[in-house]
Specification:
Elements lengths: L1 H25 L10 E4 L4 E3 L7 E7 L3 H16 L5 E7 L5 H9 L9 E3 L4 H5 L8 E5 L5 E6 L7 H14 L6
Parallel strand pairs: 3-4, 4-5
Antiparallel strand pairs: 1-2, 1-5, 3-6, 6-7
Helix pairs in contact: 2-5
Length: 178
Amino acid sequence: MKRRWVILTVLLWPVLTAHLLLAAGFFKVGERAPSFALNAITGEPVSLDANKGKVVVLGLFHICDPCMMQGTNLQKVYEATQGKNVAVIGVNSSGNSKKDVGEFLSAFPVKVTYPYLLDPGKVTDKMYGGGKFIPNVYVIDQQGVIRWQRVGNMELAGSDVIIAEVEKLLAAEGGNKM
């Protein structure tokens, strides 16, 4: 039995290592967040560049249960940061239709009121390395630099953790500018 585990570990180690190296190549804390411009499900255009000067909490989601849980956490972040120099943005990065995304959002346990963007061309999925690592949450500073991230559904980021990261950036910038 022990021999089977050793063989299995030896066989799976290269796959796991490659998977982690691939993820490390996409998510770069300390680097500029790739810019994008998309439309919200409600039709308004939203771009990352238009939010420069604010702390941005960006969630990249597909239609799945972990994404629903993480998207619900982002709603809590959105509500807790109202009136502060913070933008919360969700993106359906898997190219799902407006109808499918609308049905997904209507199934959330809370009403999503932050901008939720459609990405029919999967632009953000490619730029931020999504797909295999969903949901993704990034906290981006006022200059557009990724300062914190949580990737994949293994360890969902609670709203309190995200809010603490946002508050650090607001404090570093001198408070809650309006």
